[in-house]
Design brief:
By secondary structure, this protein is α/β, with parallel strands linked by helices. The protein contains 7 helices and 7 strands. The chain is globular and about 45 Å long. About 9% of the residues have low confidence.
């Protein structure tokens, strides 16, 4: 589990659920290009397929992420799928990046409903990366205690990975020895987060 602390500004369209956050979208694509792809280069070069899913609560944010993928020539990359929480129900990917989008705004049920949070977080088979604002996700002004506790545990677990340890983890991760360990760790992690 990795937590990328990022701030930004939410822009709202004509309707309340038409939200986007440019900084989050940019942070996600920069993380893919500068950290994730270089770490996975050996696996991808050997013909192993790695599925990466980027989940966001809002369609406008989905479009914003595509805009940044396009800037890097990645919009047609078959190993990347970008979708909303609802479109990922029943699907999985090796790596999931969950973009919470909201910051300093009253959150929608898309990031406060336990079932939807569970859908977003449980799609990862191997690695889960969450992008959000630590201060926002733990703020009692915006979130009830039970939801704050879920995000607090995610942040605490996710901040344990510093850049160097993440790259090392990704390098060794796809070997057969670590695959079983990681799946076990993900299952036990969910039990701790949603207790």
């Amino acid at each position: 589990i990795v937590f990328l602390n990022s701030d930004g500004e939410v822009e709202i369209g004509k309707e309340l659920l038409q939200r986007r956050n440019e900084k989050y979208a940019e942070a996600i694509v920069n993380f893919l290009v500068n950290h994730l792809f270089p770490a996975l280069e050996n696996q991808m070069g050997e013909g192993k397929s790695v599925k990466i899913g980027i989940i966001t609560p809002y369609n406008n944010q989905l479009c914003t992420i595509y805009k940044y993928l396009k800037k890097h020539g990645l919009e047609k990359n078959k190993c990347i799928k970008v979708g909303t929480v609802h479109s990922f129900q029943g699907e999985e990917a090796d790596i999931i990046i969950f973009d919470t989008t909201d910051v300093d705004i009253y959150p929608s049920q898309l990031i406060t409903d336990k079932k939807l949070i569970n859908v977003a977080l449980s799609r990862a088979k191997e690695l889960l990366i969450i992008v959000g604002s630590k201060n926002y996700l733990t703020n009692p002004k915006y979130f009830k205690e039970d939801i704050r506790q879920i995000y607090k545990r995610i942040i605490e677990e996710g901040e344990m990975f510093v850049k160097g340890r993440l790259i090392l983890f990704l390098f060794f991760h796809w070997s057969k020895n670590f695959l079983y360990f990681t799946k076990f760790k993900m299952a036990s992690w969910f039990k701790r987060i949603f207790r």
